[in-house]
Design goal:
Elements: E1 2-10, H1 15-26, E2 31-37, E3 42-48, H2 54-63, E4 67-68
Antiparallel strand pairs: 1-3, 1-4, 2-3
This protein binds dioxo(di-mu-sulfide)dimolybdenum.
The site of dioxo(di-mu-sulfide)dimolybdenum (9UX) has 5 residues, from helix 1.
Amino acid sequence: AAKQTVIGVGGMHCQGCVKNVTNVLQALPGVEQVEVSLDAARAVIVHDEARVGEAQLREAIEDAGFDAL
Ligand code: 9UX
C-alpha cells in the first residue's frame, strides 16, 4: 500500500542539496513520489511500504550526508 512519510532533513543549504536528497530517495525501489523543501527542511515521500520503509528512507538521507530528523 502507498504511504506518505514526512522526514525532517537537516544540513541542506541550497537547491543542489535539495536535488541530491531528491535523487537518493527516488533511487530507492518502491519510492513513488518525492518532494523536498529547503525552506521547510523536510522531505515528503510517497512509497510502497511493502518495498521500502521509513528506516531505509532515513538511511538514504544520512548516507547522502544529511541529517534525518
Ligand atoms: Mo549546495 Mo549542498 O552548493 O550538499 S549542494 S550546499
